[in-house]
Design a protein that fits this description.
Blueprint: E1 4-5, H1 8-11, E2 29-31, E3 34-36, E4 42-45, E5 49-51, H2 55-68, E6 75-77, E7 80-81, H3 84-100, E8 104-107
Parallel strand pairs: 1-6, 4-8
Antiparallel strand pairs: 2-5, 2-7, 3-4, 3-6
């Protein structure tokens, strides 16, 4: 594996101002995933998506997608929100935060497929 997956609470420093909520997954959550490269000069973002899969499974799936594209990463996080509007606001805030810190942003065309038979 190219990097380690971390809990959303640890990544909060990288996405200050997000509306992300690290509570356990509800029946259906709205999420987006993000990853930072090892030098923390690039940030990778997925679109927002709905899922009922456990957070660990979603993060592993996003990490595998990055690995499949030979994208090195150090951390992966998939913050949850209760609704699409909150998730989109959180994603936008995280992108703005990372841009202000000089990171280049890359959108990754990824959404989770059936994870652990729960989608």
């Amino acid at each position: 594996m190219h990097g380690a997956m971390i809990a959303p609470a640890v990544l909060a420093l990288a996405i200050i101002g997000c509306v992300a909520n690290a509570a356990p997954a509800a029946a259906t959550d709205v999420r987006y995933c993000l990853a930072l490269d090892p030098t923390e000069t690039k940030a990778y973002f997925s679109p927002t998506f709905e899922t009922s899969a456990p957070n660990e499974a979603v993060e592993r799936s996003f990490a595998r997608a990055l690995e499949a594209e030979s994208i090195p990463y150090r951390i992966v996080s998939c913050p949850r929100s209760d609704d699409r509007s909150s998730a989109q606001t959180a994603r936008k805030s995280a992108i703005e935060y990372n841009v202000r810190r000089g990171k280049s942003i890359r959108d990754i065309a990824w959404t989770p497929m059936r994870l652990m038979g729960r989608e």
